[in-house]
Design brief:
It is built from 14 helices and 18 strands. With 448 residues, it is α/β, with parallel strands linked by helices. The protein folds into two domains: 104 residues, Roll (Urease, subunit C, domain 1); 313 residues, TIM Barrel (Alpha-Beta Barrel), CATH 3.20.20.140. A hairpin with a 3-residue loop joins β1 and β2. Bound molecules: zinc ion. Zinc ion (ZN) binds next to β6.
């Protein structure tokens, strides 16, 4: 007899369809789908939709808060929002080997979701270590910043970009290079123009420091180099309609190019009344870009949806310091799935199969976790989220499980929420309350 059976759910399985079936779980894995299954424990899904656990492929932890603390609190917020696995970007100027085992060790006993890492590649020494990082740590995805974050992260030039693409291509299709695509010279020129005319400004003025064409040009250039090198290229946080149109033309000719956008970019414009609380890099765009991103979600130009979560408090954010002084970033894990259910499924008719595909299956496939993750099938991890498309909740950051004292969505009503999160076969969140705990795991990946 199974440990657990989830009954009366409508299973949302990308590639298969929506299937009414019970799920039997044993030892944290799905062992059977069918009807009339029995288990020692039962969860009744009451005709609600059951999705594979959400994989947020793009978060940051430990940038402004203590890393060990954020591993605990922010992954708890993720679970409360239906996220059961996170892909966390880490980076710095020093070589990662041998020290990165300490970071991996830190996850044990701390994290509530499962976790995998992507490492920033900023120096030739780090690039040389890539085969070692794959072998020692099971890390198969790496990140390049064509435009860095002024004062925090350096830019890489085209020579470095192309050589790193070649390094990755030589290691095969199990290795993915993630790219933050913007043109740093265009950004620098735009920034100094805005600085010349504005002592302070609005969220919309901030957008002028990183114009839409800066992203589009970098997307085209990186795609060109990836075509030469033959590597797998994953664009993080695509924010503009211009990039979506460029990728719609580029991707059919190169199946090794992938594009991510974020739930905030799909729901917030530069004219939002959130003001500088929503200061971000890349910045929020105009309505037309938001609609183009949704179109990209619908027709497959967008492969994945992440958050680009950068947890911080209001004291760190310092939105009152104005356009130049406020910090970029925001917490977004607890609202990730509700934002997509509200703005995508309920407002724009995006199908739940699409949601499960872009928020679970494809991140798992692209980052080497499929079919352990990303699908509801025998043999897969029993990470599941039960959603109620009619549940409406007014967002209050206090209920999101994060240590952060704000959410971009505070005060907004979102329709469509997870009502149960099942992690490794255990019910861990029910109706917005943590009801159980199961230790998250570090996910080693292989390049073959
Ligand atoms: Zn990021």
């Amino acid at each position: 007899m199974a440990d657990l059976v989830i009954r009366e759910g409508k299973l949302v399985i990308p590639g298969t369809g929506i299937v009414e079936a019970d799920i039997a779980v044993e030892g944290g894995k799905i062992i059977a789908l069918g009807s009339g299954l029995t288990g020692r424990e039962e969860i009744i899904a009451s005709g609600k939709y059951v999705l594979p656990g959400i994989i947020d492929p793009h978060i940051h932890l430990g940038i402004f808060g203590d890393l060990a603390m954020e591993m605990e609190t922010e992954t708890r917020s993720g679970l409360m929002g239906g996220v059961t696995t996170v892909g966390c970007f880490m980076g710095g100027p020093n070589p990662y080997h041998p020290g990165f085992s300490d970071t991996i060790a830190l996850t044990e006993g701390k994290i509530n979701t499962d976790i995998f890492f992507h490492l920033g590649i900023m120096t030739p020494e780090q690039r040389q270590q890539i085969p070692r990082l794959i072998e020692e740590y099971g890390i198969t995805s790496f990140k390049l910043y064509m435009a860095g974050i002024p004062g925090l992260i350096p830019d890489v030039d085209d020579g470095f970009l192309l050589r790193t693409f070649e390094t990755a291509a030589a290691l095969g299709d199990g290795v993915t290079i993630c790219v933050h695509a913007e043109n740093p010279q265009i950004n620098a020129a735009s920034r100094s123009e805005v600085q010349g005319r504005l002592a302070d400004g609005t969220l919309a003025d901030w957008t002028d420091t990183q114009p839409n064409y800066s992203e589009e040009e970098a997307v085209r250039r990186a795609s060109y180099f990836a075509g030469l090198a033959g590597n797998r290229l994953y664009f993080v946080h695509i924010s503009t309609g211009e990039s979506i149109r460029a990728l719609a033309a580029i991707k059919p000719a190169n199946p090794k190019i992938f594009a991510e956008t974020t739930s905030p970019y799909l729901s917030i414009t530069k004219f939002s009344d959130k003001g500088l609380l929503a200061k971000m890099v890349p910045p929020f765009r105009e309505e037309a870009s938001v609609e183009a991103l949704w179109q990209g979600v619908k027709d497959g130009v967008v492969d994945t949806i992440g958050t680009d979560n950068v947890s911080q408090t209001l004291a760190v954010k310092q939105a009152d310091k104005g356009m130049w002084g406020a910090m970029p970033g925001y917490p977004a894990l607890g609202t990730h799935l509700p934002v997509v259910l509200h703005h995508g499924v309920n407002k724009r008719g995006v199908s739940l199969l699409k949601v499960a595909e872009l928020m679970s299956k494809k991140p798992a496939e692209i980052f080497g976790l499929y079919p352990q993750k990303g699908v509801i099938a025998p043999g897969s991890d029993a990470d599941l989220v039960v959603v109620d498309l009619d549940k409406t909740v007014r967002v209050d950051h206090k209920n999101l499980g994060s240590y952060c004292d704000f959410s971009l969505y505070d005060g907004e009503e979102l329709k469509g929420w997870p009502v149960m999160t099942i992690k490794s076969g255990r019910l861990v969140v029910k109706d917005g309350q943590v009801v159980g705990q199961v230790p998250g795991r570090y996910l080693r990946r292989s390049a073959s």
